[in-house]
Structures are given as C-alpha cells and as structure tokens.
Fold this sequence. Notes:
Elements (H helix, E strand, L loop, with lengths): L8 H4 L8 E16 L4 E14 L2 E7 L12 H12 L9 H8 L6 H19 L3 H5 L10 E3 L5 H14 L4 E4 L6 H10 L5 E4 L9 H6 L8 E2 L8 H9 L4 E3 L6 H10 L4 E4 L7 H13 L3 E4 L6 H10 L23 E2 L21 E2 L1 H7 E6 L2
Parallel strand pairs: 4-5, 5-6, 6-7, 7-8, 8-9, 9-10
Antiparallel strand pairs: 1-2, 1-13, 2-3, 11-12
Amino acid sequence: MTNSPSPAAALEKILVPKIDRVDLVTVKLPFVAPFGTSVYTWTDKEAMLMRLESGGVAAWSECVSDPDPFYFYETNGTARHIIKEFLLPLVEPGATLGETEARFRRVRGHGMAKATIENGLLILIALQKGVPLHEILGFPARKIMSGLSIGLKETPDELVAAVERAVAKGYHRIKMKVKKGQDVDWVRAVRTRFPSVRLMVDANGDYSLDDLALLQRLDEFGLMMIEQPLSYSDIYEHSLLQKRLATAICLDESIHSLADAAAAIALGACRIVNIKQGRVGGLMESIRIAGYCAARGVGVWSGGMDETGIGRAVNIHLQTAEGFSLPGDTSETSNYFDKDIADPPVVLDAAGFIAVPPGPGLGVTVVPERILERALRWERVR
Ligand code: OSB
Ligand code: MG
C-alpha cells in the first residue's frame, strides 16, 4: 500500500513491562438520561475495566464493549473470555508492543478485547515514565474539538431543546441519531431552528438501498455527514449509495481495521471515517488509520462508546494524533454521569474545546472507592 514508515513505528518498538497482577472489574454507572439509538436504548454504562499492576504502579484501562451485542459483536462477556483464555497468555514482558500486536492477530477479531490490554500497557508505560499518554503515542498536547451525540428523543421539540442546550454550551458539532420513520422531519425541525449549526446524523445501520430516495432527501439539509446509513457489516453497498448522495458518508460499524478503511476508501464507500479505538483493536491501529485517511483527504474523527472517565480520557489523548481533523463524539462527563469513576470530569472551555488532562498516564485519577461503590464483579486473572 505504502512504503512510508508507519506513524505507529516508534510505538511498535516499545517493550512490554513486567506485570505483577491483572484484575478485571465490571462497573455499572447509571446514565443521567437513557441513550436511544436505532439498535437499542441504554440506561446505564456497564463497563469492564482492567487493572494492570507493575512494581507498585497501577494502570486502569476500559473495554469499550457493552454487556449486549446490539452495537457490536463483542460483549463484556466475550471480551472477558478472550482476554483471559487467549490474549493475556500471549503478553510477555520484554517483547515489543509490535510483537505483542502480531501475536494477537492469531485471535481473529475481538478488537475491543485486544485494545483493553494494549491501552492498559501504554497507560502503564506512560505512568512508569512519568509522562502523559499522548507523549508516548508521539504527539504533542493540543486542545481537542468537542462534539455531542444526541440520542433518539420522544418528540421533535425535545430534540430541538437538546440541540439548543448543546449550541449554548459551544459544542463544535452536533450529531443526532436517526432511524426509519424518525429522520427527515426531525432533521428539518433542527435545521429550521439552527440553519447553520454543524450537524450530522447517525443511523447505526438502519437503512437499506431500498431507502435511497429517502436518504437523498437528507441532502437538502447541508449535513456534515451521514454516519453508517446501511448495514453494520457492509462496505460495498455504501459505495453505491455514496455515488448517489451529495452528503458525505461516514463509516463507523463497518471499519474494524486499517484494511477495512483502505477497502472503503478504494471503493468510494465513505468520505469520512469514525475511529473508535476499541473497535479497530487499539491505539496503534487507530493512529495508522488516521494517518492513512489523512494522506488521502479522508476526514477522521474519534467516536465514543459512552465511556467512563477512563475510556473518555483515552479518546482525548488519541485525538492529539495526526489526522484527527473533525470534531468527534467527545462531550462533557455531565452529559453521561452525575458521578464518574475518574477525576477531573471532562468539561468544555469557553470556545468549546477540551483540554488534554495534564500529568502522567491518562492525566485523570481513578477513584478506587467509586469503583468499589459501582462494582458488579471483581476478578483477579493473573
Ligand atoms: O454509533 O457512535 C455510535 C454510543 C454507543 C454505541 C454506538 C454509538 C454511540 C454514540 C455515542 O453515538 C458516543 C459517545 O457519546 O460516547
Ligand atoms: Mg455511530
């Protein structure tokens, strides 16, 4: 594909530290409001966390799967199984991260499980060196653009009110979820109230090519993009659709790797890629995809999985990487939780930007009492 060095080349050479202990801890945090999508409505975030301990230093990472397979095939249950039985046994102190990633490739798929370990190792390495994660990734700190993902609402008025609050906060772009029967009129309601706000929709795969005429009606609203209009597993039909739409298509669910992104771009299936570091198997693959897309004029942004403060901080550090050109689904902690398990919470500054939390590792402090308070399960696995 290309002979230029991978933007993750330096990362691949970093050595895996010795690991004294590994724990998997499942927590459940109630959302401030239910989050509705075309595939499911979540009322809380049930997250599986990983705690790596090495020489008295503890690093927390988060598996971005849900307890259910409604957005993605992995679940907290499959991730626990794959991590315990197949991935952790492949993690060998003294091997490089590149070698570790290569060993992980023998396990097909299960990127969220792989990313949980890779995130944890990188955070641990950053903590041991006393530097922020973004520095280990190879990028200087920069302010991150913000974006809000608004779930399906009961009425257009409720949706417009949510957009009003987001605009008042200064979010750089607003995404609204759509589904069949809750699309054109709802977009029009928002557009009528806010003719020029940077707006996009996310269908989570609810449409098919039979809906072409309907999807074409969205072209009149000047949307930044339509995210994953067709099936979660499709690339080819998106390429047919993109030829018939003025609005850019963004792929989310369909992209599991750099190879998927390359195929989608070659086919003209999208003009924008949503990178969720867990869905693509980790931060190194995310950095490769972002670099690949940027070199081809394809827009990139960081998606979110309604993460706790741990996964949210990972997404913020990732967005210092080259290629992240568009505002992502990175919004304030208060949009999700009254009380998160890490401090400080994510907040927007007066211009709508998010600062990378300073300090070693993620730059956020995990509060053990809050984890214990919310823990459903605590299992030592190594
Ligand atoms: O499709 O991007 C999605 C949340 C859970 C599962 C899938 C998606 C989402 C979001 C919200 O849109 C992202 C966030 O605010 O973290
Ligand atoms: Mg999406």
